[in-house]
User: What shape does this take?
Amino acid sequence: MSVALLAVVVTAASAPVVACGSLSSGDQITVQDGNPALTAAFNRLLAERGTARLGDVVASSGAEIGPWDRMYSFSSPNTSDELNRALGTDGAKWTGLHTHSDSTTQVFVRDGKVVLAYDDSERGPIVERRSYATPDSTVSPTSMVTKGIGGDQTIWYLEIQGFS
Assistant: This one.
C-alpha cells in the first residue's frame, strides 16, 4: 500500500476563489491566484498530522488577511451570480474567477465584508456547501484508502470540523 500526501482541507463539497472587497451591492471583488502562505501552513499541518484551530493556522501562516469571522469554499467553476447568491453580495462584480473545475475558491469574510478571496488550485480547505467555518473550527488530518494502479493507496487530507 502506498501513501499519498494531499494538501487538502475537506469537510464536504464546494469552494470558490475570491479576493478583497466588501459584500455590499456593486463592489468589485478580485479573486487572487493562490495564496502561498496559507497553502504552506495547511501543508505543514498535514505533514505533521497535527490538529489545530482554523484561526491559529491562518494566523501562523503570515497571510495578510486581518480579522475574519467566516470562511467559505466554492468548487470551481463559478459565476459572479452564483457567488453573489451564496454570499449575499448582490451586484458585486467578481474578477479572477477560474473556469476550470480543478480548484476551489476560498473566501474569508469579516462582518459581511470579503477580506480575502483566492483560487486554491491545491483544493485546500473546503467548507461544506451552504455552510461556513469559523476561527474556532478544528482542522485535523484524516485519510481514506482508494484503489489505484498497483494496489490500494492511502490519501491524507485535512478536514474542518465545527462549522455553522
